Amino acid sequence: MALVEEFDLGEYIFPRGWFMIAEASELDDGPKGVRFFGKDFALYRGESGRLVLLDAYCLHMGTHLAKSNSASIVTNHEQLEGDSIRCPYHGWRYNPEGQVDDIPYFDGPCPKARIKSYPVVETLGAIMMWHDPAGGEPDYQAPDLKAWHDSQWINGCYDHLGDIAIHPQEIIDNMADAHHLGPTHGAPCEYFENEYIGHKYYQRQGGYHRMYRAYLTTLTWYTGPGLLLSRQRFGDNNGYEFIFHTPVDKGMVKVWHNNLSLAPGVNPGEQDIANAKMAQEGALAAFAQDLQIWANKKPALQIMALPVERNFRLGRIWYQQFYNPIEKAKEFHARVNGKHHLKGLAKPSALAVELQE
Ligand code: FES
Ligand SMILES: [Fe+2]
């Protein structure tokens, strides 16, 4: 598998941005240990409902704060106190900022050292963390969709696709990849456009889908480097697809998939829910066509791109902003911002753009 150094993306090994790290419901059973960006974390929902993400290991003797389900304080539901968490080994208590603020068997002042705490939010049924190798605060928000909160839209459950041995660059490449839509997905595009606006990367495309027997139009966009949302319409289907990916270790990403479907009436019934499930399965089957190729390909460190494939290069430049200090982001924006068409394919019609936005 390819390493970030080989892709030559910038100064960082892992990108800056908002990333999914768990499904919201995974915290219902208490603290959870998660591993991303080559590091271990303890994730939990405090008693007030506040989300907390801390470096996993206790300063005292290195115990993972969230990987015991058998310690007495865990089984007796005494591990969380308010929004603080106690280490399962000797009970040192950490507040949401990662500061030790109570040691059960010691009256003196707590050691001054602290473990790191990270920005974390819940949106779209997912827990998202802000990851910045330089430790900076978020410079944009994690995405939300009005439709997620609208009862006429049926929210799917996350498909957990597990850890995949691929560099995330190759997942991002898909955004510029107009000419795999026919051979891989059976829906060759007629019109195609990419647009870059700062931390956002858009793709507008449409074409006749062989299997769906309908004209498919999609508006797909990344908010930062790991969160893809896609508005998709064909026939009577009107939905959103989510593909979220987060680096786990070098050359390894974790991937989730979800769907939102618009029901025909305001109070979706059982049949509507069954249809939404089918739509999600269909979208997942299409994504699986990509996944199977990615899981078995050799890294495309250099793409032998034809002149009609210049957006691959632009997409990679856009992606580099997240592997470099934020002060440099503007330089990458200046190189790619704007709309970019591909020779040989139509531009989206005004109608296609209006329908999607
Ligand atoms: S190892 Fe955490 S309290 Fe001792
Ligand atoms: Fe694809």
Descriptive report:
Keywords: 2Fe-2S, Iron, Iron-sulfur, Metal-binding, Oxidoreductase. The structure is a single chain. With 357 residues, the protein is an alpha+beta fold. The chain has two domains: 17-131, 3-layer Sandwich (Rieske Iron-sulfur Protein), CATH 2.102.10; 146-356, Naphthalene 1,2-dioxygenase Alpha Subunit, Chain A, domain 1. It is 18% helix and 32% strand. It has helices at residues 4-7, 72-75, 168-173, 270-296, 311-320, 329-336, 350-356, and strands spanning 17-23, 32-36, 39-45, 51-55, 80-81, 84-86, 93-94, 100-102, 120-123, 126-131, 153-155, 159-164, 191-197, 200-209, 214-223, 227-234, 237-249, 252-262, 338-341. Strands 11, 12, 13, 14, 15, 16, 17, 18 and 19 form a nine-stranded antiparallel β-sheet that branches. A four-stranded antiparallel β-sheet has the order 5-6-7-8, with no helix packed on it. Strands 1-10-9 form a three-stranded antiparallel β-sheet, with no helix packed on it. Helix 5 runs antiparallel to helix 6 (329-336). The mean pLDDT is 94. The structure holds FE2/S2 (inorganic) cluster and fe (ii) ion. FE2/S2 (inorganic) cluster (FES) binds at residues 58, 60-61, 63, 87, 89-90, 92.
